[in-house]
Structure formats: C-alpha cells, structure tokens
Amino acid sequence: MTVKNERADAIRWIQAQMADYGLTMEELAAAGCFDPPPPPLPPAVCYRNAEGLTWDGQGEMPAWLRRAVNAGQSAEFYRVG
Q1: How far is C-alpha 60 from the chain's CA centre?
Q2: Three-class SS of residue 55?
Q3: Which of 13, 16, 33, 65 could form a disulfide with 28 if both were Cys (CB 3.0 to 4.6 A apart)?
Q4: pTM of the entire structure?
C-alpha cells in the first residue's frame, strides 16, 4: 500500500469517526486537536559541580568534568540524585 493510499484511508477513517460521533471541526479545534505539540522538555541534569556547571550525560563529556576525571576524581562524585 502506498503512502498516498494510507493517507486517503486515514482521512476516510477520521471522517467516519467525526460522522459517528457528530463532531465538527470547530469542536475539535476547541478541544486543542490542532494545537502544535508542546516543546520537548530539557534534558535532566545528571552531573553538577560546585560552580553550578551541569551535564545531562548525553554527548561528549564537558571540559569541566573531563578535567576532574583526569585529575583522579570519579565522575560519580558529581552525579545528581
């Protein structure tokens, strides 16, 4: 099945649901169906130092934590929670 056919099937299904439940476009809009999705939440902080610098554990280790680890400190020392 092509994307075009799948899309047409989805539209027909939505139209049938709207007809079955007596829904209008105005009611769907009032219910927030067409609102843009909320922005993603910022990543949770996993590591923090005494200066307040943070890292979420994603991507390359930041310089402040890399320096501490290279100096012999465990990264787990800076783990939050």
Answers
A1: 20
A2: strand
A3: 33
A4: 0.52
Neighbours of 6 (CB within 10 A): 10
Strand-pair partners of 48: 54
Residue-wise DSSP of 19-30: HHHT--HHHHHH
Beta carbons of 56 and 44 less than 8 angstroms apart: yes
Whether the Cβ atoms of residue 46 and residue 57 lie closer than 8 Å to each other: yes
- pLDDT tens, position by position, 5-63: 999 999 999 999 999 999 999 999 999 999 999 999 988 999 999 999 999 999 999 99
Residues near 42 by beta carbon (within 8 Å), at least 6 away in sequence: none
Please state the φ and ψ torsions of residue 21, each to the nearest 5 degrees. -100, 0
